[in-house]
Amino acid sequence: MNKISIKLGLLFFAFILILEIILFSFLYTGLVDSRIDEELAELKARGESHRHVLEKSFDKTTIEHVALMETEADTDVVIMTHKGKVLAKSNELTSPMKRLMKHERGSVPFEGMIVEKRWATESYISTVSPIVIDDRLIGHVYMFKSTNSIQTMVYKLKQHFILVGSLTIILTVITVFFLSKVITLPLIRMKQATKALSKGDFTVVVSHRSKDELGELAESIQTLANDLNHLKKERNEFLASISHELRTPLTYVKGYADIAKRKGVSDEERNNYLQIIYEEAEHLSGLVKDLFDLAKVDQHSFVIQKEKVSLCEFTNKIAEKVRPAFMKKGIELFHSCPDGLFAMIDRPRLEQVMINLLDNSLKYSNRNSKVRLQVEHDQTKNKIELSVIDEGIGIPKEEIPFIFNRLYRVEKSRSRESGGSGLGLSIVKEIVEAHGGQINIVSELGKGTKVTIELEGCK
């Protein structure tokens, strides 16, 4: 059994046992007191009955008849004068009886009284009733009952309570055992799951159908496990992708450097090799810069310094900067922006975003196609939308949800012709969200892609 089951079971058992002892004690005491009160009331009522008979006919025959009636009963009667002379008795008097009969005969109330009720320590319980004829005290009727029968009755009652109490404790132990197992089983499973998580096993499954706090905790642990498993896969894919991205340019640099330093290589060939080495070094530099940006994002040190910027001026400069590259590939770049639009942005960071999006459109668009860089204003929501729309190859619908993942590329072969490391769009998303904005992609395979950045406008 697990420690938590033992602790919880002992706690429940101790609480229930204390509660049962208190309840059984009250019940036992109440029943005993009630039964003794009944015995005393019955004894007193019997004495009162005899008193009434004697008050009607206080003669020798009646007195002897009353005494005779008690000879076969489990009670004893003693009839005596008010001066203490015994007129009749049902059995021989014992010392305890004689002692009790000396008890305040002159102060007995008319309705009678209990002389002795200490059943646990005395030999008899006793009552006395006065015999009053014509408003004159004639004598007393003493009633006695041996406490042996009462003690026997109390003993049997105690035995019953012990038996019932023992059965109750046994049932309590069994109930507490099963309840503690039922309650702690989900906790034990969660403990095992978290232990597996701490050892790096993120494939654990925590099943709990209840809708209470335990169910919510199990669901949270399962969510954590799923997230960690996803992060583990992403990390492995990320490391594999980074290794691939770094290995390829390094291979080119090493290979062409070996060729360039050989004897007999012409200056023209050597310059060509050096140009390839330079391009690969640039590629490595860009990749390292992207990785550095992502590292700053993860460490929350990615600082955005906003300023009020005219979006038309901002986007126009970007369009003019990239236009030569579009013209070289035979792609028309259109720019449209209504006057008077301003936004609080980090100019260098958002410029990095727009150039990245335009560069993607350039890479994945064919000659004689069109690319539009447009700015629109939604006055009802006071939102500004910066869009890059191309007529390129498009993105498969099933790939769009993953397009912003790090090192994710729709083109799986990572060919040098298609370029890119797969880090650009993830950085773009981080920069846009750091501005408090959103980025959305709508694309259709073979027809083109529209990337829209939504930002808060300002006056």
What this model shows, in words?
By secondary structure, the protein is of the alpha+beta class. The protein has three domains: 3-153, Beta-Lactamase, CATH 3.30.450.20; 213-298, Signal transduction histidine kinase, dimerisation/phosphotransfer (DHp) domain (Helix Hairpins); 307-458, Histidine kinase-like ATPase, C-terminal domain (Heat Shock Protein 90, 2-Layer Sandwich), CATH 3.30.565. The chain is built from nine helices and twelve strands. The protein has helices spanning 3-56, 60-69, 95-101, 147-198, 213-260, 267-298, 311-329, 347-363, 424-434; strands at residues 75-81, 86-89, 113-116, 124-133, 136-146, 307-310, 332-336, 342-345, 370-378, 383-390, 438-444, 448-458. The strands form two sheets. Strands 6, 7, 8, 9, 10, 11 and 12 form a seven-stranded mixed β-sheet that branches. Helix 1 (3-56) packs antiparallel against helix 4. The chain is rod-shaped, with a radius of gyration of 52 Å. Residues 412-419 have low confidence and may be disordered. It is an enzyme of class 2 (transferase). Keywords: ATP-binding, Cell membrane, Coiled coil, Kinase, Membrane, Nucleotide-binding, Phosphoprotein, Transferase, Transmembrane, Transmembrane helix, Two-component regulatory system. Residues 214-241 form a coiled coil.
